[in-house]
Design brief:
single chain; 446 residues; D-Maltodextrin-Binding Protein, domain 2; 2 domains; five-stranded mixed sheet; 19 helices; 13 strands
């Protein structure tokens, strides 16, 4: 898997090196003066004329969205294709783009992966379709992930504002208070492991997404991107906050050496030996289906803060729908994307368990008052919605973040399996990412 991902990203980055005038999400962009505007009349006419629309996505809630869209527009046929999850789909998409054949009209792309496609002009700018008018529709984190100053490269489909999921039964058993700061979290880890040497506050064997999310919340901004000019620096004050606490957790062996999404991970959450997860708001469905024995035991709390009294949060996961530049049926493709991500399709997906990126839904009384039987009747969406509103601004991903994440365990991840200090591991990750970007034609500073 890792080798195929590397080959994929080399292909993408090599294309990037040939398009130095292109732009990345969050960087400089085209003036937009020569872009043809697409009016509502053009989209209505396309819907009446109809045609077949090919959508590549792995998100299961889109199945009902596609069926509803076809019902509303009988002349349109939506072919929903699961070309793989995440990296598997990106490989297939890049192969199709390279061959200039079989490129889908719409593609699901995670936020952290958008930059590489935007930089190579692999995605249509959706602003001419009116997407730039939707800024107020979405919460800040997802919206900032899909747009630059003048361009909109996708519409947010969901989001992952972070929260602390915790096993209340375990915390109550050992009379441990739910931590509100990371220092309190560290002490809770000590108290729990002392009370039960088989129990751990959490698990971690090195995860790029979890690490960047916690760095984001801590105020670290390691990536600065302006087109093909990139800066990578893991030595800021925010990174120091994160490494100080996490290094103590590792040194004191307070973290379960269990890999997330493994059988042992699910088992640990079910039997109480893994007591918390700091993760995105999309997690409830995974707990209810994968950790059924934990029903009624788990609860949700705001993410611990790096400074008492603050309310900073960050995103963990989430994806968008974009229009590949070589795809067809542009008006139909945009109509479906807007329907799924800003129209009636949003409610359809929420009812099926998706976590929205739309502000109105997050703030609605019905959404916030939803009781979760798994969490003992807790109205967990209130915690998630507050987290979404408090996502710290200013975060950027690399235009080759997928590649960078693929080498995390060879660099920063060594802190979890060897004597490497976490700060040194992040420096190794920085150096390897700088080297790769420079080799591919980016101007990279550190």
């Amino acid at each position: 898997m890792r080798m195929s991902t590397r080959r994929l990203l080399r292909g993408i980055a090599l294309i990037s090196a040939l398009t130095l005038g292109a732009t990345a999400c969050g960087g400089s962009d085209d003036s937009g003066s020569d872009r043809k505007q697409v009016g509502a009349g053009d989209i209505d006419a396309a819907l009446k004329k109809g045609g077949t629309l090919t959508v590549w996505a792995w998100e299961p809630t889109l199945e009902q969205v596609a069926a509803d869209f076809e019902k509303a527009h009988p002349a349109v046929k939506v072919e929903l294709v699961n070309a793989g999850t995440g990296n598997d789909q990106y490989k297939a998409l890049q192969n199709a783009i390279s061959a200039k054949k079989g490129v889908p009209d719409v593609a699901q792309i995670e936020y952290y992966a958008l930059g590489q496609y935007a930089l190579t002009k692999g995605l249509d700018d959706l602003a001419p379709y009116g997407a730039d008018k939707l800024a107020g529709t979405y919460t800040p984190g997802p919206w900032n992930a899909v747009k630059s100053e003048k361009n909109v490269y996708a519409l947010p489909m969901d989001s992952g504002p972070m929260a602390l999921f915790f096993n209340k039964k375990v915390f109550d058993r050992y009379k441990i208070a739910v931590p509100t700061t990371w220092d309190e979290y560290l002490q809770a880890a000590r108290d729990l492991h002392k009370a039960d040497p088989k129990a751990y506050i959490t698990n971690d064997t090195g995860d790029a997404g979890a690490t960047t999310s916690l760095l984001w919340q801590a105020g670290s901004r390691p990536y600065t991107v302006d087109g093909t000019d990139v800066k990578i620096d893991f030595s800021d004050a925010g990174a120091a906050k994160y490494t100080e606490v996490w290094q103590k957790l590792l040194d004191e062996k307070l973290v379960a050496p269990v890999t997330s999404w493994s059988d042992d991970w699910y088992k640990g959450m079910g039997d109480g030996t893994i007591a918390t997860l700091a993760i995105g708001a999309w997690m409830p469905a995974n707990l209810s289906s994968g950790v059924k024995e934990g029903a009624g035991q788990w609860r949700v709390a705001p993410l611990p803060q790096w400074k008492a009294g603050e309310k900073a949060s960050s995103e963990n996961g989430g994806s968008s729908l974009a229009l590949p530049a070589l795809g067809g049926n542009k008006e139909l493709a945009y109509a479906f994307t807007e329907y799924a991500n800003a129209g009636d399709g949003v409610q359809t997906r929420i009812k099926a368990g998706a976590f929205p990126a739309t502000t109105a839904d997050l703030q609605s009384e019905a959404f916030q008052n939803t009781a979760f039987p798994y969490f003992g009747g807790q109205k967990a969406n209130q915690v998630f919605a507050e987290s979404a509103a408090n996502v710290a601004p200013g975060w950027s991903y690399l235009p080759y973040q997928v590649y960078a994440n693929s080498i995390f365990n060879d660099t920063a991840g060594q802190a979890y399996v060897s004597g490497t200090e976490l700060a040194d591991g992040l420096k190794d990750w920085q150096d390897a990412s700088v080297k790769y970007g420079t080799e591919q034609g980016f101007t990279v500073k550190k």
